[in-house]
Records
---
Amino acid sequence: MVKSTGIYRGGLNCELTHGPSGQVISTDAPVDNEGKREAFSPTDLTAASLGSCVVTTMAIAARKRLGIELDGTRWEVTKEMSSDAPRRIVRLTTEVWLSIPRSKDVDGVLERVAHGCPVHRSLHPDLEKPVVFH
């Protein structure tokens, strides 16, 4: 079990603390909902978490199953919000630029584990979550 704590700092900003490490991040409301774009919005964190989880899970599989490291692999997640109520994320498109030739993953292990990362599996099935590899 991992706990995080938070405090509302005012001005639509929150401060979040990761219990085990003590690391702190801030959030701001989204700009289209009275925010100032001073930090990640809560839904931005969802998108960032998905990208981080996809690549971390791939890195674990690359190390264990393929005996290689994915240092330098980059990702980008594009978040799309609903235009109707209720306000929600409707699509998270993840793009991954592998730091290794795809020929090193002959059986497609990395692509399979990317779609099975814990965040990907935790998101609602109605949420579109395509993953594109470069």
---
Amino acid sequence: HLTDALGRSAHPELAGIAAKAHKEARYHARHSGEWVVRLGDGTDESRRRAQRALDDLWRFTGELFVPDEVDTAMLA
């Protein structure tokens, strides 16, 4: 949502950078999602490894939604 909104900025350089970042983020989200499905639907071993990785990383998910100093400065 952030890069989409910044892509409509009145500042042309910021809008251009954000538009490119938005396209890149969408591509990487789609690409990684396809791999999660592919590994989850693959062999028992690939499913086990993918699930273990998700279980190990799940605890960090909340950090995606907590602003840090950079986010706060950008908002200001």
